[in-house]
Write a structure and sequence with these properties.
Radius of gyration: 15 Å
Helix content: under 10%
Shape: globular
Number of helices: 1
Number of strands: 9
Strand content: over 45%
Largest sheet: 5 strands, antiparallel
Length: about 120
């Protein structure tokens, strides 16, 4: 890992997944989208369970688009793994915690999900 200083992303797990937000950083504004991909058998087997992602059959995906005069430009779309730094054009992103309560799949509420990620300019 580098010695970059990361700004915590404004992810609100209580809003559920998928979720999206805009963030102005440096000279640009970005659109972030997060969604969880969870196999049906996991959902059926433990409808209120908490998953430490990624795990067999479940993972979190991040998509980042830069807003510009010509429209959106996708600079990242990745399956996430904690502790990995993801370069995305002029950004670097990392995630340290990815706990997903299955009730937050298409559902709003404070159930114990915790997604902590950061972004830095290169």
């Amino acid at each position: 890992m580098t010695s970059l200083s990361f700004l915590e992303l404004p992810i609100d797990p209580a809003e559920g997944f998928p979720q999206a937000f805009r963030l102005a950083l440096g000279e640009h504004t970005y659109q972030f989208r997060l969604y969880a991909n969870v196999a049906e058998e996991i959902i059926d087997g433990a409808p209120g369970g908490v998953l430490d992602l990624p795990t067999a059959g479940a993972f979190l995906v991040l998509s980042v688009d830069r807003e510009g005069p010509a429209g959106l430009v996708t600079i990242l779309r990745r399956k996430l793994v904690p502790g990995v730094e993801y370069p995305a054009a002029e950004l670097v992103l990392t995630f340290r915690t990815m706990l997903l309560d299955l009730r937050n799949l298409n559902g709003i509420g404070s159930f114990g999900s915790e997604i902590v990620g950061g972004v830095s300019l290169r």
